[in-house]
Structures are given as structure tokens and as C-alpha cells.
From TrEMBL:
Family: Belongs to the SdhE FAD assembly factor family.
Organism expressing this protein natively: Rhodalgimonas zhirmunskyi
Protein name: FAD assembly factor SdhE
Signal peptide extent: none
Pfam families per the UniProt record, alphabetical: Sdh5
This protein's record includes keyword Chaperone: yes
Length: 85
């Protein structure tokens, strides 16, 4: 069965707020609320791939402690811009 766009948005939103590290829950939930509904399928694919990454790595990327890998750098910059990290 093919996942509908609305179902995918709901699933990614839920994954954004149930991370494991509270800081990442808050950051990614704010980002999901602000951006997911306007993302195209390719952007959602990138975001979903980012959600597969380790929370500790994500936090270091978003907080600027460690540079994000090239693949995720534009997305991480967008997250930082939205949440003010």
C-alpha cells in the first residue's frame, strides 16, 4: 500500500517529536511544524534521511559544535534558521 502525502507528513511529524533527546524533540518539532507541509517529496526524503541519524550527532550539527556532513548541510542550516539554534 502506498503512503499518502498526509500520512507521511503525520509520520514524519511524530518522528520529529519522539527522538530520545528532549532538545532534539523540541528543535525538530518546531522545524516540522514550520516546514514539512510545504516540502516537496525530494525535500521530505532528505528530512527523513536526516531523522535516521543519531540524536547526538544531530544536536552537534544543529548547535554548530560540529559541521554537518555535506549531504545534510543545507537542511541543517535551514533547521538552525527556523529554530534559532
Amino acid at each position: 500500500m502506498v503512503e499518502t502525502h498526509d500520512t507521511r507528513l503525520k509520520r514524519l511529524t511524530m518522528r520529529s517529536m519522539r527522538r530520545g533527546i528532549k532538545e532534539m524533540d523540541l528543535i525538530l518539532m518546531r522545524y516540522a511544524e514550520a516546514r514539512l507541509s510545504v516540502m516537496d517529496a525530494a525535500a521530505l526524503d532528505d528530512y527523513e534521511a536526516l531523522l535516521e541519524e543519531n540524536d547526538h550527532d544531530l544536536y552537534q550539527w544543529v548547535s554548530g559544535q560540529v559541521p554537518a556532513p555535506e549531504r545534510f548541510a543545507p537542511l541543517v542550516e535551514d533547521i538552525r534558521g527556523v529554530v534559532g539554534a
